[in-house]
Design brief:
317 residues, alpha+beta, two-stranded antiparallel ribbon, 8 helices, binds zinc ion
């Protein structure tokens, strides 16, 4: 799907009928006369099934870059390009410093949503932020939606291309989404165009199986940072002072019920020798001091901070 959306591609089979129906596909450099004659030639060829003339053949598939709408800014040289598909689908071209130096709007929604964004000259992070903010404000990106990031093309500008390029892009998008809204339920998926894989051997990074992409891992809590309470099993604990009885020996008479040499009745406890436990306010129990009655508490092994050892916390392999 993305390969098709990239359009313009050299690998796109330019058929005779397409070239006739889309004169705009041809280069602007050509004169109208040439265009007309080429189109006519092609049309005639289609009917007569004679070989297509050299001029007609060359006019069709080689002028891929100029097929795109005039809004597009396709740089002469770039290091790589990323397609960001939310539904507005846009292709961003980057120089070797991950600065956007070109943009192609791959569908009408992209033109509508993004045409006034100043993407060229922006860093990858700033560009992604602009796109996501706009997709959200225009209602394209909703809760539980998804963002597809595809490493689409490798350009001629030399840059060390390894999986960090796509991982970096995906993590940037994830960070922007969570910074804005916390947990959004929006999934971010990475892919690598087949041709890029053939060229470079790069494949889409996969979520780390150890931590399922969370980047956190802990044998105690599985990386969630939260465990079932290890102190209580019902949210309350028995008072250690009164052992759950709710009463203790009277502080006035030390349990005797009487005070002084004459054995006067203790007026604090009225002679019972007991008083309400002040540790638990006479309840015999109190809320679990570890979980405060929530039955779960922060994992004491990792405090929720444990980076997955298999992916160093990136969540990607
Ligand atoms: Zn991991
Ligand atoms: Zn833990
Ligand atoms: Zn507890
Ligand atoms: Zn008590
Ligand atoms: Zn007493």
């Amino acid at each position: 799907m993305f390969a098709a959306l990239m359009s313009g591609c050299a690998n796109m089979q330019a058929t005779v009928s397409e070239s006739v129906e889309s004169p705009a596909n041809e280069t602007a450099k050509e004169t109208a006369a040439v265009k007309e004659s080429a189109a006519e030639t092609v049309a005639v060829e289609a009917e007569s099934a004679e070989p297509i003339s050299e001029s007609a053949k060359e006019a069709v598939p080689d002028e891929t870059e100029t097929e795109t709408p005039s809004m597009d800014i396709i740089p002469e040289s770039y290091a790589y390009s990323l397609i960001v598909a939310i539904n507005p689908t846009v292709e961003l071209y980057f120089d070797k410093n991950d600065v956007i130096n070109g943009v192609a709007f791959l569908n009408d929604d992209a033109v509508n949503a993004y045409k006034d964004l100043e993407l060229v000259g922006a860093s990858l992070e700033d560009g992604m932020e602009l796109i996501i903010a706009r997709a959200e404000s225009e209602g394209y990106l909703k809760e539980n939606g998804d963002v597809q990031v595809e490493l689409s093309k490798i350009g001629t500008v030399e840059k060390e291309m390894d999986s960090s390029v796509i991982v970096n892009a995906v993590e940037t998008v994830e960070a922007i989404l969570t910074a804005d809204n916390g947990e959004t339920g929006i999934s971010v998926n990475a892919s690598v165009n087949n041709e890029v894989t053939e060229q470079t051997g790069l494949t889409a990074p996969e979520a780390c199986p150890t931590c399922s992409g969370t980047g956190k891992s802990c044998s105690e809590c599985g990386g969630t940072g939260i465990v079932n309470c290890k102190r209580c099993d019902n949210g309350i604990e028995s008072c250690g002072t009164c052992h759950g009885t709710a009463v203790i020996s009277c502080h006035g008479c030390h349990g005797a019920g009487t005070v002084g040499d004459l054995g006067e009745t203790c007026n604090r406890c009225g002679g019972t020798g007991e008083q309400s436990c002040d540790a638990c306010h006479g309840q015999g129990t109190f809320l679990c001091s570890w979980c405060k009655g929530e039955l779960k508490h922060v994992c004491p092994e990792c405090w929720g901070e444990c980076d997955c050892p298999d992916c160093s916390g990136t969540g990607w392999k």
